[in-house]
Specification:
Blueprint: E1 3-13, E2 18-27, E3 30-35, E4 45-48, E5 53-56, E6 58-63, H1 76-85, E7 88-93, H2 104-117, E8 121-124, H3 140-146, E9 151-152, H4 161-173, E10 178-180, H5 185-188, E11 193-194, H6 197-202, E12 206-207, H7 210-226, E13 230-232, H8 238-249, E14 254-258, H9 260-264, H10 286-298, E15 303-304, H11 313-316, H12 333-342, H13 348-362, E16 378-388, E17 407-417, E18 420-424
Parallel strand pairs: 1-4, 1-5, 6-7, 7-8, 9-10, 10-13, 11-12, 13-14, 14-15
Antiparallel strand pairs: 1-2, 2-3, 5-16, 16-17, 17-18
Helix pairs in contact: 2-3, 4-7, 7-8
The structure holds (4S)-2,6-dioxohexahydropyrimidine-4-carboxylic acid (DOR).
Residues 64, 96, 154-155, 181, 279-280, 307, 309, 324-326 line the site of (4S)-2,6-dioxohexahydropyrimidine-4-carboxylic acid.
């Protein structure tokens, strides 16, 4: 149907100073009219958005879709399904696949698979070093030409400081950037859970926050001296927040992301000894969560990124040393960030900034907008609908999340991408 009328939603788009109830008329995929009340033209499909918010759709710059090599955990189609069910229309896939995305043909492979899936924009990040081994830089300009939107060895840090410096200089000189998984492996060693009372009480191998903090500090210092950008992946500590704040105040081109799970869950998730709580960096303490929330509110942290990391059930049932770290996140980000709005950490405009505008800009895209003349690319969600996280509700191939069985508030009802409805809640 070429005409659609989305009626009665509360539109929020800080890019167009929109914050209020409006109808949206869409003709052949384009927003042709935004007005306080539009009567349905003949033949139009009317979509009821009463009690819903409508925002530009979300961009997640950090997901693991496991293709090539581990499609039993996720593939680009199931990952895309999960993305649009979470209100996302752009995702960036991490290169820690098998093989690692370290050459242009693999970058093109992911883009093509994403286009075949056709649900959202699937873009690849490429590895910083060949095979993610931390030694030899990849051919960054060829990878960028092929479509890589940034560079990271995520899942692992770039340990060698000289290699990291060269990588930042090179990526920066071609208008891109390096994103680092900040972890000093000599400090994290065989650690499994955040070093604190819970790990001590349960006898779990501790992973100290210094493992993350020292690498964040190193990367900030390198960025300051080289003048090149660096992006801190999945920032999880209160000290890390302070370091990023300091680097930003010094004028360094540092940006940072935080995951929904680090904003919401603590190391108490380990209390039932379930490895669904295992993630890298580890779940931290209440004080860290509080610092992350305020940092997201104040702009020290720029972006919410899910680090959606699917793993098969049998893998997550392994003993804690052998179980892979990671949890899925694409469908939980919105309800978790909405919870922070309800608790008054920040307002809906900030939600749109950290989930849509900032992440899109970070990878050089023009963020979607609620504006006449634009292609319809927005998310309609009910901020008060409660739903249970269960296997049926999860669109991802993997179900690894400590949230299983819990209730979340806030549900995506429709996701529009390239003028079409790519997700409808039933
Ligand atoms: O918990 C994590 N899982 N953190 C990472 O950095 C990598 C990811 C994965 O690939 O499973």
């Amino acid at each position: 149907m070429s005409l659609k009328l989305v009626k009665g939603g509360h539109l929020i788009d800080p890019q167009n100073s929109l914050n209020g109830k409006y109808d949206i008329l869409i003709d052949r995929g384009k927003i042709v009219k935004i007005d306080s009340s539009i009567s349905p033209p003949p033949g139009a499909e009317v979509i009821n958005a009463e009690n819903c918010f409508i925002t530009p759709s979300f961009t997640d710059i950090h997901v693991h879709f496991r293709d090539p090599g581990q499609t039993y955990k996720e593939d680009i189609f199931t990952g895309s399904l999960s993305a649009v069910a979470g209100g996302y229309t752009t995702v960036v896939c991490m290169p820690n696949t098998l093989p690692a995305v370290d050459e242009p043909s693999l970058v093109r492979y992911i883009i093509e698979k994403g286009e075949e899936a056709g649900l959202c924009r699937v873009l690849p990040a490429a590895a910083v070093t060949k095979e993610r081994k931390g030694k030899e830089l990849t051919e960054m300009s060829l990878l960028k030409e092929a479509g890589a939107v940034y560079f990271t060895d995520d899942g692992a840090p770039v340990i060698d400081t000289h290699v990291m410096r060269k990588a930042m200089e090179y990526a920066g000189s071609i208008g891109s950037f390096v994103a680092d998984h900040c972890e000093d492996l000599s400090l994290s060693a065989d650690g499994v859970a955040h070093e604190g009372e819970i790990a001590a009480a349960l006898g779990l191998p501790p992973l100290p926050p210094e493992a993350e903090d020292t690498m964040i500090a190193r990367d900030c210092v390198l960025s300051m001296h080289t003048g090149m950008p660096v992006h801190i992946c999945h920032l999880s500590t209160k000290v890390g927040v302070e370091i990023v704040a300091w680097a930003k105040a010094m004028g360094a081109k540092v940006s940072a992301e935080v995951t929904p799970h680090h904003l919401y869950l603590t190391d108490e998730e380990w209390l039932d000894f379930d490895c669904k709580a295992k993630v890298s960096p580890p779940l931290r303490e209440h004080e860290d969560i509080e610092a992350l929330r305020w940092a997201l509110a104040s702009g020290i942290i720029d972006i919410v990124a899910t680090d959606h990391a699917p793993h098969a059930q049998q893998e997550k049932m392994a003993e804690h040393q052998h179980c892979p770290p990671g949890m899925i996140g694409l469908q939980f980000a919105l309800p978790i960030v909405l919870e922070l709005v309800r608790k008054d950490y920040f307002d809906m405009n900030r939600l749109v900034e950290v989930m849509s505008i900032n992440p899109a800009k970070k990878i050089g895209l023009i963020p979607p907008q609620l504006k006449e003349g634009e292609t319809a690319e927005f998310t309609v969600f009910d901020p008060s609908e409660s739903w249970e996280v269960n296997e049926e509700a999860i669109k991802s191939k993997s179900k690894n999340t400590p949230l299983l069985g819990r209730k979340l508030i806030g549900k995506v009802k429709y996701t529009f991408f390239e003028g079409k409805i790519v997700y409808r809640d039933r």
